[in-house]
Design a protein that fits this description.
Length: 124
């Protein structure tokens, strides 16, 4: 049994992955902003964690809750993200930056904060 953190667990790929890994007997923490969408997953043992990956304080609060409960994180699955599509003349720079904040820098910030826990508890 692994302790797994999955972001984007309120919808789509993250939701389906959380369901699969919980059914396989793992301890799964599902992170997202809209945690109510994970109510059906709670029946499988998935623990919802409120987390906005663009907010460092939100990430830290979420990780603190996980470490308090599980004491470790073995696996991180970065499922949070969204697609914003359009011709360059129609997409604002603000929207383009917002997408990078979620899909690139949010993922990076969370991974940086999770790695020390993974190194300490899983490999050493
Ligand atoms: N589905 C596909 O076939 C496919 C193919 C290629 C690439 N992708 C990419 O893979 C990613 C996930 O796709 P999906 O289909 O699973 O999308 P989805 O169903 O829209 O789910 C997106 C997830 O990301 C979370 N999220 C968005 N912004 C967030 C934020 N600021 N902080 C924390 N969580 C956030 C959402 O949760 P909350 O809104 O509750 O926070 C939701 O759980 C996207 O980037 C998508 O472009 C998908």
């Amino acid at each position: 049994m692994k302790t797994i953190l999955i972001t984007g667990a309120s919808s789509g790929i993250g939701y389906q992955t959380a369901e699969l890994l919980a059914k396989a007997g793992n301890q799964v923490f599902g992170a997202a902003r809209h945690v109510n969408a994970m109510d059906p997953l709670k029946k499988l043992g998935v623990i919802p964690i409120v987390m906005d990956v663009t907010s460092e304080s939100s990430i830290k609060n979420g990780l603190q809750a996980i470490i308090q409960k599980a004491g470790k994180i073995d696996i991180l699955i970065n499922g949070a993200g969204y697609g914003s599509f359009g011709a360059i003349e129609n997409v604002t720079i603000a929207e383009a930056k917002r997408q990078f904040d979620v899909n690139v820098f949010g993922l990076t910030a969370l991974t940086k904060l999770v790695l020390p826990y993974m190194k300490k508890t899983t490999f050493w």
